[in-house]
Amino acid sequence: MTIFEARQAAVIRLLQIDSNQRESQLCARLLIDEITSTPHAHLTHAADEFSPAQIARLETALAQLENGKPLAYILGKRDFYKLQFQSDARALVPRPETELLVEEVLKRARSTSEITIADLGTGTGCIAISLAHELPNATIIATDVSREALALAKQNASTLVPESVRQNRLKFIRGVLGDWAGPLFNHDSEYFGPFDFLVSNPPYIAHDEIENLQREVRDFEPRLALDGGEDGLDCYRQLASQCGVLLKPNGAFLCELGMGQFEDAREIFESHNWRVENPILDFAGIARVLIAQPAS
To answer: Same structural domain for residues 56 and 94?
Structure first.
């Protein structure tokens, strides 16, 4: 079997999982590229022999996909913004809509010489590390309640962020479930703020809706990073009530939203004396990022 033939066979099998032709072709290409350690191998080395060992690796990966395992966990990596992050079951898979948070902070931070940012619920570290990569004068504190997620974020930082930045401008600290602000005050009696920006991609799936999610999310991604309580809004209530004191007078809070949550989230923040801007829409026109400032 040639590399080209292996890729074609993988596409046919993947179409049984997902009828989207483009997605199946992309998935097959990424698997073949990983197995051969060659970008676009089905084009550049199409006639090369696909060895028995490589066929076995492909078979294992396809079987895992059929069982619902996310592609990012199979490959062990996921591209996010301009970097490639290690990705595994310790944290949510980084997603394109979360890049909107990074882009919006960068728009607002470019004119500021030195800024402080807190990333609340960092997961893989994709937001904090991307901002550290783009903002050479920023000091960034990233928190997560999951010890496993923090370990993954630190691993990503060790490969993606220079040591001098890790030592001086990027810190990872353990969060406390339900207490988003407290760890930023109480870590070794040190207060890291006030902050120019707070960013967060909190859990926002309603508890009863988790069982209806795609299998790759429901069965493989960490529940702690998904479950937003009975109506999916618990974390927004906590963030709105706790985090205003962390911001500088002109500071801004930015967080990701689930589909259809903007109006409810805006009502929550306004009830806690925040001014809420118009949302940032994703490519599907969904209100995906809430931006708020303390009203006083």
So the answer is: no
Distances (CA, A) of 42 to 8, 103, 256: 9, 33, 37
Q: What is the pLDDT of residue 188?
A: 61
- Torsion, CA 4, CA 80, CA 66, CA 29, rounded to 10: 0
User: What CA–CA distance (Å, rounded) separates 19 from 130?
Assistant: 33
pTM for the structure as a whole: 0.94
- Contact at 8 Å (CB) between 243 and 180? yes
3-state helix, strand, coil in the chain (%, to 5): 45, 20, 35
Per the structure, the complete domain to which residue 267 belongs is given by 82-294
**Same-domain status, 12 and 109:** no
Task: Say if CB 236 and CB 202 are below 8 A apart.
Answer: yes
**pLDDT (tens digit per residue) in 224-274:** 999 999 999 999 999 999 999 999 999 999 999 999 999 999 999 999 999
In the predicted structure, residue 88 carries a pLDDT above the cut 90? yes
DSSP per-residue letters across 25-54: HHHHHHHHHHHHT-TTHHHHTTTSB--HHH
Number of domains the chain contains: 2
Percent of the chain at pLDDT > 90 equals 89
Could you report the per-residue pLDDT of 151-162, keeping only the tens digit for each? 999 999 999 999
- Cα 4–Cα 67–Cα 24 angle in degrees, nearest 5: 35
Place 113 in a pLDDT band, splitting at 50, 70 and 90. Answer: confident
Exposure class string for 48-77: b at 16+ Cβ within 10 A, else e: eebeeebeebbeebbeebeeebbbbbbbeb
Which CATH number covers residue 191? 3.40.50.150
**Sequence-ordered list of residues with C-beta below 8 angstroms from that of 59, at least 6 positions apart, any chain:** none
